Amino acid sequence: MAQYVMKGGNPLHGSVDISGAKNAALAIIAAAIMADEPVTVNNLPDVNDVRVMLEAIREIGAGVDRKDKHTVVIEGSTINALIVDYEYIKKIRASYYLLGSLLGKYKRAEVAMPGGCAIGARPMDLHEKGFRALGAEVDEGYGLISARAKELCGAHIYLDKVSVGATINIMMAAVLAEGKTTIENAAKEPHVVDVANFLNSMGANVKGAGTDMIRITGVKSLHGTEYSVIPDQIEAGTFMYAAAATHGEVTVRNVIPKHLEATTAKLLEAGCRIAEGDDAVTVSARDITLLPTQVTTLPYPGFPTDMQPQMTAVLGLADGVSTVTESIFDNRFKYVAELIRMGASIRVESNIAIITGVDHYTGAHVSAPDLRAGAALVIAGLAADGITTIDDIHFVERGYEDFTEKLRGIGAEIERVDNERDLRKFMFQVS
Ligand code: EPZ
After folding, report:
1. d(C-alpha 275, C-alpha 383), whole Å
2. Domains plus CATH for the chain?
3. 272 included as an active-site residue
4. Per-position b or e across 202-218, b if 16+ CB within 10 A of its CB
5. Which strands sit side by side in the sheet containing 137-141, from one edge to the other?
6. Which of 130, 348, 389, 426 could anchor a disulfide with 170, C-beta 3.0 to 4.6 Å?
């Protein structure tokens, strides 16, 4: 079973290029099938979730021509099935975006119901509420969500909770509907805006993405386009927080600093120095003492829940008591037990982690419970005294392209190993 193995203690230094945003790319791949002409998507992140999403649309008959690891040409005219198999939903929840795009284009779709996941219940009620408001019949049963409509008509939809997935799914279902749709209390994440811009580049009429009121005017059809995915704010934040935890100095390149505002603000509060350029951000934590602070995860532009584990790993080394409150998901602190095994002093009460900073972490054999928690354990391992090995790294490889290569490029002693022999070889090399 593949593992990450690392020797901690090296301050990270240098520059790292950030890949395209996974959570934008997954939705854009689903939306691309809505045209009956070729759609070229550039700056795709080369991560497992993208590979699975491309397999899912190929499975229902779409043309998928992977030009290189960052570019794909998708052809939606050859789709011959409207059922997305559980095999794909089991691997990535975001396959549910095919509900919105297939319903929007063909007025019919069946997608296996996504299960829960390591970070809590992941209901679909808001997605279904939006589809019904547009005139679709939506049923759940036999592990499937089925949606169909004689026609889709524009509607006013209020989202009781801010939901990235529901906002994007409803947007896709509405772009070819008759008339006007408004989505109130919409999610404002950069990847929601990216999907709206992508749909507009295909001839859709979506206004107000990035605000809490999105207005869509249905069009007759969508045409081919060429589009480039925005940089991944969470990948960028992860490298920035690794720089902080290891007291290094790292520049993340090919980023949109505005998307990182909350992530950056918390590093400033923790005592780091920050320098921002047009498309780069430098974090310096050399010779500083990390300071405690309070963090609450919120929908964008608040502090992103996908940076919550990484924040906890950094604050675990701060000089004082911090709190991290998780307000989005109901079970996103599973990784804390693993951090405690590395010497962290953290108490979780309901949805709040109370973190008493320690002088250092100690290397240990730990397991990644989910994608971002796995990234947080890598951060802790790179800061720790000694050797850390991490199991279940398939979670991490869902969302981080060339993770160990990029980390080695900024001075980390880390390897991805597939067997005991390679593990021993690494241990020998670093001893
Ligand atoms: C997206 O998940 C991301 N995934 C998540 O990133 C991210 O954590 C999340 O948005 C929040 O930013 C993708 O984009 C593929 P939500 P999503 O709908 O859309 C509740 C990662 O690490 N809710 O915004 O599923 C829900 O339970 C992943 O890349 C309902 O109640 O999240 C949660 O409490 C992890 N009913 C809150 O809304 C619904 O119908 C926000 O969820 C839908 C959601």
Report:
1. 22
2. 3-19+231-430 (3.65.10.10), 22-228 (3.65.10.10)
3. no
4. bbbebebbbeeebbbeb
5. 83-84, 108-112, 144-148, 137-141
6. 130
Using one digit for the tens of pLDDT, what is the confidence trace for 368-386? 999 999 999 999 999 999 9
- Tell me the C-alpha distance between 314 and 244, whole Å: 7
Asked if 230 contacts 259 with a C-beta cutoff of 8 angstroms, the reply is: yes
Residue 79 CA to residue 100 CA, distance in Å, equals 15
- CB of 94 closer than 6 angstroms to any ligand 1 atom: yes
| CA–CA separation, 327 and 330 (whole Å) | 8
Ligand 1 neighbourhood includes 424 CB (under 6 angstroms): no
Q: What is the pLDDT of residues 262-290, one digit of tens each?
A: 999 999 999 999 999 999 999 999 999 99
Sign for the CA dihedral angle at 73, 76, 80, 82 comes to positive
Q: What one-letter code names the amino acid at 144?
A: L
Q: Going by C-beta distance under 8 Å and a sequence separation of 6 or more, which residues neighbour residue 428? A: none
**What's the CA angle centered on 129, arms 127 and 135, to 5 degrees?**
110
Q: Which amino acid is at 358?
A: V
232 CA distance to ligand 1 centroid (A)?
Answer: 16
Rounded distance from Cα 201 to ligand 1 centre (Å):
25
Instruction: For ligand 1, say whether the CB of 143 is within 6 Å of any of its atoms.
Output: no
Order of strands across the sheet that contains 352-356: 294-296, 321-325, 352-356, 345-349
Q: Whats the size of the chain, residue-wise? A: 431
The count of other CB atoms within 10 Å of the CB of residue 29 is: 28
Q: Does the C-beta of 123 come closer than 6 Å to ligand 1?
A: yes
Smallest CA separation from ligand 1 atom 14, residue: 23
363 C-alpha to ligand 1 centroid (Å):
32
Q: Which of 262, 265, 269, 272 is nearest to 242 (CA)?
A: 272
Q: Which single residue is written with the structure tokens 């989910």?
A: 370
CB contact set of 162 (below 8 Å; sequence gap of 6+): 185, 186, 187, 188, 212, 299
**CB contact at 8 A, 305 and 237:** no
